[in-house]
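Deliverable D4.2, example record:
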Amino acid sequence: MKFTKETYGKILVPMVTPFNEDQSIAWEKVEKLIDHLINSGNADSLVLSGTTGEFHTMSFDERVELLRRAKEHAGDRIPLIGGVGCTSTVETIALARKAEDLGYEAVMIVAPYYAKPNQDELLYHFTQAAASVSCNVMLYNIPIFTGVNVNPETVGRLAEIDNIVAIKEEAELNPKQMTAFLNATPDDFILYNGDDTMILECFAQGGEARIGGVISGASHLLGTDIRRMIEIFLSGDIQQAAAMQRKLYPVLKVMGQNSRINPVSLWKSALKLAGIDAGIPRRPLSPGTPEEIELVRAALQNYGAL
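Output generated by the structure prediction step:
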């Protein structure tokens, strides 16, 4: 199963997980959301059980069931990547093996959260997890939630392992670290931008050869626009692509209003405004307030998405 960025495309959507009012997973809405993302053309592939999918509030069994149902419902219509990162190495290994057993050819593993491991401990964690499966592994670096950065030297050592093939980087936190990762890894190691505000900046650093694309929450609604923006940038029309990114920026920022570090709550509100019921967030995250939703509506209308 050789990893190629062409298999997964440039727009990888970290799919939200719909929850019901009673906080259970809304399985029917999960299936309808998968259908929307496929039929709309907004997604080239889907990432399940990621940050935007609120994996951190889900049990191990719920995550396995999400991976199973998504695989069963999506079939061969779109490539899937399973988010399997957990706080402990033993649980990460167990979930990665479950994903591989379900037919996932790639998994994404976030740095352990809450534990704040040092670089040697991160190296051990990722090495052991990768050794436990034969599928491809994408590292996931998001220090704002994990409290730890996977340093370039560590990524360089991990890239020597055959099935560790890529990294998702939350690029706005450290904009030039993408270049450090590029310099620390071989040419066939692929980098994915994990921040919708930094799409063009990442492609400017690594070019189409090394940057696989964006793992983009905004692409639940705006994936076709974001794909076009990337294509225009790569074609050499920098000014038009820059204008598109400036137009997109206010929509991205409004999703983080009132110190919402994880924008999933308001993206779910945005989806509902667009006629797509993606449920509500799982507590402690709260649904958008009427005032927040009006600001989201205004930003989407100004953009032209409503």
